[in-house]
Amino acid sequence: MINIMFIAPPAAGKGTQSDLVTSKYNIPHISTGDILRDISKEDSELGSYVLETLSSGGLVKDEITYKLIENRLKKADCKNGYVIDGFPRTLDQAIEYDKILEKLNYSIGKVFLIEISKDVLEKRVTGRRICENCKAIYNINNEESKPLVESVCDLCGGRLYQRKDDNIEAFNNRYGSYISKTEPIIKYYENKKVLYKIDGNKPIEKVFKQIDDIISEVDS
Ligand code: AMP
Q1: I need a labelling partner for 62 at 20 to 30 A (CA). Which of 71, 140, 197, 213 fits?
Q2: Active-site residues: which are they?
Q3: pLDDT in tens, 89-120
């Protein structure tokens, strides 16, 4: 079982790295952000609550998030491992995650902390575009990761969109929330000796190599 967790500030590239790990190891990518974005499109009380919370950059209530995570991890495609991305975001969530793992008889696996400077993140946030069809990620502020044709996905021709929370105001809110709420969980996983620090300022493939070397080293 290859269980991988990413901890990273918003726009640090954890979505991209998660995709690289999931394709190489053929395991599902479980992103609480993606699950919540899907729910935010539903025409229901829950859908409107989630939409409002996501647009403001705040965190969705724990009891909702826990139920979504447990239900997702129970599915058969997680039995050989998975990448969990966006959860846990707080110490409370990390403690609850341990309980969920125990209930499902899963191990914590490896936790990767992507370290990156705030200046780099601000540039990425304003340029990030996502394919509404295949969810491929682009950055219009970076020559290497720009789409070939403006607003069109290179891979599937889908339309590219900008996330509602990819603006400076919501970014500052999410970054502040990340620092204050996520730092304690870094200590938590450091103490458990499952935390690996990754330099996220490097190009995508170099960041992936650092991660992949650790996955293969520990699993061999
Ligand atoms: P992300 O795609 O991981 O940046 O998440 C986008 C948004 O989804 C966040 O700003 C939160 O509003 C919400 N969200 C994602 N994961 C969690 C979580 N573990 N707990 C609460 N809210 C979350």
Answers
A1: 197
A2: 14, 89, 128, 163, 174
A3: 889 999 999 999 999 999 999 999 999 999 88
